[in-house]
Design goal:
282 residues, globular, single chain, 8 helices, binds adenosine-5'-diphosphate, four-stranded antiparallel β-sheet, binds magnesium ion, 2 domains, D-amino Acid Aminotransferase, Chain A, domain 1, alpha+beta
């Protein structure tokens, strides 16, 4: 026994060293991949606007990879990032002054909705509140391996809803919502948004009855969702899930979309919609 380690530990755990320019290139490439993701908000939302389907007032604010890595690492911001942070805070404050708080904010890919009060529900425009919520969203996105960066922050007017209870860590309001699946303008079916077994920490004892009471759309709701989903998937092309949220007056809003094959489909509660066959005989 010489007391020497038989392995050269340093060579077993080699952490590649990148110089600054390599790091910048890698960040730029990762950012481009995020921008190209079809699920990124800016890759589907403009089609919703063009189609004129009811959606909440929305503003998107570009977030550079440098700003995101600074916020995620908790590093001191350099002058350029400092300016970007000020601009971000100001843009949110301007939207908040115009449309009122709370605002709904999310990355291009996620709202971290289960952490509602800490993440997507922005109660006021204080810079510290804004940055805490943005950091929560970025952290959630990164920690869950959803995407490396987000091309933008999405800022939306909060829809006035009639939740039946709140749930999860962040007391998220549980409201009537549906997810429709459609391919190239043809509806497959829909499901109530919240599966019973997904609910955690409900705020009331009779939550199962309350959830059941918001799981069946009216005929008018269905017509609206079918028409909207047909139009938007005909325009975007491909297979999509299309999410609708009901406001307290009973109107449905298109709030979210994602590629169908990446979207959770609840087979137990799925309701197939068969469209009448077109008569092509003459
Ligand atoms: N503008 C809004 N006003 C009120 N509630 C909203 C709004 N947008 C989304 N929500 C609620 O937050 C949830 C998550 O929002 P969503 O945009 O679908 O984010 P995610 O990408 O995390 O699914 C929705 O299912 C809905 O309950
Ligand atoms: Mg969603």
């Amino acid at each position: 026994m010489t007391g020497k380690t038989p392995f050269d530990l340093d060579s077993l755990f080699v952490i590649p060293e990148f110089d600054e320019s390599q790091m910048k290139t890698m960040m730029a490439e990762a950012y481009e991949r995020c921008q190209a993701n079809p699920n990124a908000f800016s890759n589907w939302f403009p089609a919703v606007e063009v189609a004129g389907i009811r959606h909440p007032k929305t503003s998107t604010i570009t977030l550079s990879p440098e700003l995101q890595s600074t916020l995620l690492d908790g590093k001191p911001a350099d002058a350029q990032v400092e300016t970007q942070i000020d601009a971000l805070v100001q843009a949110i404050q301007t939207f908040g002054t115009e449309h009122g708080y709370p605002l709904f904010i999310k990355t291009a890919f996620t709202s971290a909705k289960h952490y509602w009060s800490e993440a997507c529900a922005l109660p006021d425009g204080h810079p510290q509140t804004i940055l805490a919520h943005v950091c929560e969203l970025l952290n959630f996105q990164g920690m869950n391996g959803i995407e490396t960066f987000t091309p933008e922050l999405v800022v939306r007017k909060m829809i006035d809803v009639a939740p039946v209870f709140t749930a999860f860590e962040g007391q998220m309001p549980v409201t009537e919502e549906y997810r429709v699946f459609a391919r190239d303008g043809v509806i497959e079916g829909y499901q109530p948004y919240w599966p019973v077994d997904s609910i955690q920490k409900p705020s009331i004892a009779a939550w199962q009855e309350a959830l059941k009471a918001i799981s069946t759309p009216t005929g008018k709701d269905l017509d609206f969702m079918i028409n909207a989903s047909e139009r938007i998937t005909r325009s975007l092309k491909g297979y999509w899930s299309v999410d609708f949220l009901k406001d307290k007056e009973g109107k449905l809003w298109l709030i979210d979309m994602a590629e169908g094959h990446r979207s959770y489909r609840n087979e137990a509660d799925f309701r197939i919609i068969t469209q009448p066959e077109q008569d092509l005989s003459c």
